[in-house]
Amino acid sequence: MKIAAKLNNVTFRYANGTAGALNSLSLTLKEGECVLLCGASGCGKTTVTRLLNGLIPQYYEGELSGKVTVFDKEIRSTAIEDLAGIVGSVFQNPRSQFFCVDSTAEIAFGCENMGLPEAEIHRRIGKTVTDMKIRGLLDRSIFNLSGGEKQKIACAGVAAMLPDLIVLDEPTSNLDLDAIRELREIIAVWKKQGKTIVIAEHRLGWLEGLCDRICLMENGNITAELSGDAFFGLTTETLNQMGLRAFHTEKNYLDGRNGLYPIKPFSEHGRITLKGFTFRYGKHQALAIDHLEIPKGSVTAVIGHNGAGKSTFTRCFCGLQKGFRGTVSIDGKPLRPRDMMRLSYMVMQDVNHQLFAESVLEEVMLGAVGPSEDAALQILEQLGISAYKDRHPMSLSGGQKQRVAIASALLGGKKLLVFDEPTSGLDFRSMECTAALLHSLDKAITVLIVTHDMELIDRCCTHILHLENGSVL
Questions:
Q1: What is this structure's pTM?
Q2: Per DSSP, what are the bridge partners of residue 88?
């Protein structure tokens, strides 16, 4: 088989000290091969993908030694626009790669930038839409698409450019199980077309039968390589010892059970009552909950398929969403939206929007009420990020940033904590640390967790709230 890409003795250090440095890494990719990169947060997976698509060194600055070639083009001497038709990228957060507000225009955007004739662009869009079965997503507002739908549009935009190499960085971190199955089908189509595919991922089970080779990374290097058959034959115990997640969880809480229900014995400490919760995006009814009671002191998972209204619900619940209607009362006492804002703290899905300070320790102390520096360091230690206390938050990996935001939430002295996908991009050990900390919180604190992570639910949640189409199922 021909060589698609080769990294030869590559060492890289980000100029701003960002996690994910590489240390004398060598990797050869063969044409038509599907390769999985896995390992702990900050091990260098994303850095490898950025080298392959030219973002390093053309966009991300740093010290680079060694040689990287992609289809015989040396990345340091190749303009990033010259790689666009050769390498396609699908990022963890598809919003970060969108340039248009209309889904069809977004699919066409890359082809237009390549200077293709209009007729050829229409032909490519038509074939891509047919291959990926996404005709129902055409001519839609990007802002009204669910996470899974946005990921499909991102994949379609890449596929329409007909690249030979496709890299995907944590593509399922915010997807439900149905959306993951659909993404798997898309990648299977690419594989049949002979594309070379590289996937950096923590959620592993969905890739069984797709990946030809698995590279386990640690501290910026590849420590082990296994065939697909050998890797997916490993036991859960072995995977966890390696710091990796199980291939499949025993439970799927989206299997049709209804309403708010407990999954662990729990003693109520009062209740939070919601009445007449409604919200619309234009003519679209995004939320319609007549009556709901949530136990105070619970750790409640808010689940549902992509587009079910989970994030909208939590924003309304915290008093952050303008234009919603409804009332919240705690132990019978009615509260206004501004009261809920004072009581609550939300860790957003994209934590980059809420990191402000110059160091991790300063960040977690920024909104702290009362706790000393020792208390802050203790929480950082519990979350496994105390070693980064003097680092700039934006220099951390995605999973490490997520834990900084969680630490800030826990030190804020709020009585209602809301987490939107808190374990997206987290490896097994980081997820366990996060779950243990959330499970150990004082029962005076009520926690809502919007999540697709069944392992997290098993480890720390006391109740589950299942939403679909903006209503309690």
A1: 0.80
A2: 166
The pLDDT profile of the chain, 473 residues, written as one tens digit per residue, is 799 999 999 999 988 777 678 999 999 999 999 999 999 888 899 999 999 999 998 888 899 999 999 999 999 988 888 888 899 998 877 777 888 999 999 999 989 988 899 999 999 999 999 888 889 889 999 887 877 788 889 989 998 998 999 999 988 877 777 778 888 998 999 999 999 999 999 989 999 999 999 999 999 999 999 999 999 999 999 998 888 988 876 567 776 555 666 766 555 678 899 999 999 888 888 899 999 999 998 999 999 887 788 988 999 999 888 888 999 999 889 999 899 998 898 888 777 888 899 999 999 998 777 768 888 999 899 888 898 999 998 888 777 887 888 888 888 878 899 988 888 777 888 888 888 888 887 778 899 999 988 888 988 899 999 999 999 98
How far apart, in whole angstroms, are the C-alpha atoms of residue 156 and residue 129?
Answer: 7
Amino acid residing at 4:
A
255: left (phi over 0), alpha (psi -120 to 50) or beta: alpha
User: Do the strands 446-450 and 271-281 form a parallel or antiparallel pair, or are they unpaired?
Assistant: unpaired
Look up tokens 């790689």; give the residue: 83
